[in-house]
Design a protein that fits this description.
Layout (H helix, E strand, L loop, with lengths): L6 E2 L13 E6 L9 E6 L10 H16 L5 E6 L29 H11 L4 E5 L3 E2 L1 H4 L6 E5 L3 E3 L13 H20 L2 E3 L11 E3 L3 H17 L2 H12 L5 H16 L2 H11 L10 H4 L17 E2 L1 H6 L2
Parallel strand pairs: 1-11, 3-4, 4-5, 5-7, 6-8, 7-10
Antiparallel strand pairs: 2-3, 8-9
Helix pairs in contact: 1-2
């Protein structure tokens, strides 16, 4: 029997959360409460922002909050210092024989972090502001957008460390860049410049200026937060990632979701704001306005999905 879902309490400010290996900031800076754009910074610059179990726990703490907090519209993930992420922290190492779980019980920590991003209805932009390898590459595969630095080095180096790909990358990577590019990167296990042809379209934008990577990510995030419907954007991503296997089945699903969205208040607002030449104010939520057939897929529960603690939320009003 599955445990009851964890109830999430939404903080007034994300900058006060007890995270350790990441930093959570509002954008624009110095805002006293949560803003439409939230910045998550991998915050171990002396270790090249190498991944730790604590980092996973930090992501699993904040991302369910982002998912349920209607103030948050877009998340930007970046790294402190000159590197984005040096992969798993090899100084910490891997579990010893005495610490090992049964294979059936183990849940890859990078995969748990990746799923936290994937399951969040708010889009994530990953600003790979410096070099990244291994888990530093795979943690952003479930994000909506990835931006890289042209001359920094990136690679899926698993074969050179004697391990296999992780963080659900066998699902995401070939779907993003095709099997040919994915096989080349994984078979060589080498690192390449951000503007290398071998990455295909993995990085939707590649920036020559290193500080410009985060700057561009924040520009995109602001535009998304101010001009797009959170519900419509989430449904679009769900339709692509969790679609049907045939054109006919896809047609039936697309038709049902679209027909529901035609009668949605965000659709009415989108049309009216366009006709009136003003900025739209989208307010639809998944809980109140989502299509009744959602989820149309069988949910696999790798750990109960968090829900908003409405009692605590009301007590703060």
């Amino acid at each position: 029997m599955l445990a009851d879902p964890v109830k999430v309490q939404i903080p007034k400010s994300y900058e006060t959360l007890p995270v350790k290996d990441i930093k959570v900031s509002h954008y624009p800076e110095n805002a006293p409460e949560a803003t439409g754009v939230i910045v998550v910074t991998l915050n171990r610059p002396k270790q090249g922002n190498a991944f730790t179990l604590q980092m996973m726990k930090d992501f699993e703490l904040v991302y369910p909050m982002f998912d349920l907090d209607e103030r948050v519209k877009c998340v930007v993930v970046t790294g402190a210092g000159k590197l984005f992420c040096a992969g798993a922290d090899l100084d910490i190492g891997f579990p010893s024989a005495g610490e090992r779980e049964r294979l059936v019980d183990h849940r890859d920590s990078g995969g748990r972090l990746n799923l936290a991003i994937y399951r969040c209805r708010k889009p994530t932009i990953v600003a790979l502001n410096g070099s990244a390898v291994g888990l530093g590459m795979t943690l952003g595969l479930s994000a909506a957008i990835r931006i890289a630095h042209a001359s920094s080095k990136y690679g899926f180096v698993f074969a050179r460390r004697g391990i296999t790909m992780e963080s659900n990358s066998s699902f995401f990577l070939p779907r993003l860049i095709g099997y040919s590019n994915a096989l080349y990167l994984l078979t060589t296990g080498d690192v390449y410049r951000g503007d290398s042809k071998h990455f295909g379209s993995l990085f939707q934008e590649v920036i020559e200026d290193q500080p410009g990577v985060l700057k561009r990510a924040l520009e995109l995030a602001t535009t998304i937060a101010e001009r797009t419907s959170t519900l419509a954007g989430f449904m679009n991503r769900e339709l692509m990632w969790r679609g049907k296997p045939s054109a006919e089945e896809t047609h039936l699903l697309d038709s049902a979701v679209l027909y529901h969205m035609f009668a949605n208040k965000d659709c009415a607002e989108g049309v009216q704001s366009f006709m009136q030449k003003r900025d739209a104010k989208f307010t639809a939520t998944l809980e109140e306005d989502g299509p009744p057939l959602y989820p149309w897929f069988n949910e696999v529960d790798t750990g109960s999905r968090p829900r908003l603690d409405r009692t605590a939320a009301k007590s703060k009003l």
